[in-house]
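Let's do one together. I've listed all components of the complex below, 640 residues spread over four lines.
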Amino acid sequence: MTNIRDIAKMANVSVTTVSRVLNNHPYVTEEKRKAVMQAVKQSNYYKNINAVHLSTGKTYLIGIVLPYSDHPYFSKLLHAISNQALANQYKLILFQTKYQKEKEEEALNMLKQKQIDGLIICSRAHEWDTIEQYTAYGRIALLENCKSKSISTTFIDHHHTFYHALEYLYKNNHRKIGYCIYRKTGVSSKERESAYRTFLKENNIAYQPAYIFDQCLQYEDGEKVFHQLKQMTDPPSALVVTSDQVAACLVTCCQKGGIDIPNDLAIIGFDNHPMAKYMEITTMEIPFEEMGGSLFKQVIQSDQVTHHQVDVRLIERKTV
Amino acid sequence: MTNIRDIAKMANVSVTTVSRVLNNHPYVTEEKRKAVMQAVKQSNYYKNINAVHLSTGKTYLIGIVLPYSDHPYFSKLLHAISNQALANQYKLILFQTKYQKEKEEEALNMLKQKQIDGLIICSRAHEWDTIEQYTAYGRIALLENCKSKSISTTFIDHHHTFYHALEYLYKNNHRKIGYCIYRKTGVSSKERESAYRTFLKENNIAYQPAYIFDQCLQYEDGEKVFHQLKQMTDPPSALVVTSDQVAACLVTCCQKGGIDIPNDLAIIGFDNHPMAKYMEITTMEIPFEEMGGSLFKQVIQSDQVTHHQVDVRLIERKTV
DNA sequence: CTGAAAGCGCTAACAA
DNA sequence: TTGTTAGCGCTTTCAG
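Okay, and this is what the predicted structure of the assembly comes out as:
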């Protein structure tokens, strides 16, 4: 493998000069620049980027932590972040954790090891404290509603958003309202539960544990909800479903299985995935591009910690 | 930042010894090993992986080239490859190209620059020749039907698969058969066109350019097809749609728009995405896990070039 | 079993 | 404007 020293020899200049032309630094005569370029071309030379990384301490690599890359929510997010990264000469390295702490640690450790300049965490399994410790090694941006002094965040106000959805159902005369979430332990789920409890209290509605459906993440999870609904003697009349794909499956199952939407069951989805548009599912639109752009900006700007709230919009269609 | 030399000093050993215990090499007394471990723990030391990379010339990083990470087909594939990578201590670096040659080059160049050990190309924009040149710098695995001596491939026999789908429609008494594809220039599209032409010829059916719908990639592209169908005086009676999400949108639009499926229009999708199951769409099942596993294996084994064909299964449901 | 020392290939401070 | 040189932090050969 030819290296910078070989090029220097070939072009009859010093390695510094070669480095200068390679990095477009000033103070090189056109003549020498040409000689270097010539040598580079002739020998089909390419920088060893690992040496650059070692020398500069920067890699232009951003880690991105998410549980599943084949889920529409996360893949839309990934897509948005990737757009930004590519436009800014950064590369993304993917950590698909499935919420396993060890996988998350691998990502965190790469920060320690300096293989990545920063880390975007879209959803986490580790405690907040653990994550915060790693800010000593590099930038972290988190998709979560938390005003930290050390970690930048981009977030949705899930409490408010969820409350808004519940209210909308209430205005449409629903009193038996339930919801479907990814995982009870998630931070956003807790915000949602709190919104739900507040909503019930303010409207004097009794809390019904059976109206809460956990583990609704994949498309096919909508079917489980459908079956549970079918077996309930007093099912909810409306459901907030925190993923359009789960909502889409549920709607499909209901159409086939004799539950009339929205008369027997009203549904509000989340994401505003195209499928919600064509299936005419009322949903909460999540601004993926904005979120991805914000997270990326936060993770590369090393000078300040910011907190950016993105707004979610209710899109009225035909399932309520 | 503490480095290996600091640890050596702290533990009163040489850097070599530190390196040995860090890498679990033999020939270190338990005593010294402990001393090193102690020092490591005390100073919260972590290897600088860039130095390791420079020194060893290996990065345990695999690049993955795909056009869109938010498309179900590619995100399923990404998911499958990611599963394998994580299980084998490799990390994935994502190149979302949108079929831009420059983006593809970036990935290829990282191979040259030794930032990645290998590259998996799920879909390409560059000419085959261009790509082949890069095998000099590292392993490449390609998701494409091509028996190359220098690049390992995992592939679907699109000709056969597509022919099979067409035949199935023919057996179901369809004579006006069309299809929807991603992009005409793709390698798989050409195989499909060839299958289509052969099929028409063998059954004495005239070629109808209007029966071929290009640019069907995103969910919402199904709507475009629907509108075109509506305006045709002599529309096809059956369509092979090379993506379940496009098929799903089309089915949805047809249900709303008064095209009866399968009577007015029969549809075969591709992928066997869960949505095809619940929407009862007849489809060709693509074995993503097998494909991802194969591609990953091929890209890390440096000793041989292999070609692995995966089989696609027709799943009969209710849209034909 | 252990350590000295020579790289890996590049950057950048400093001197000229 | 150019070149010398000392790192960056780790691995690995070789001699002991």
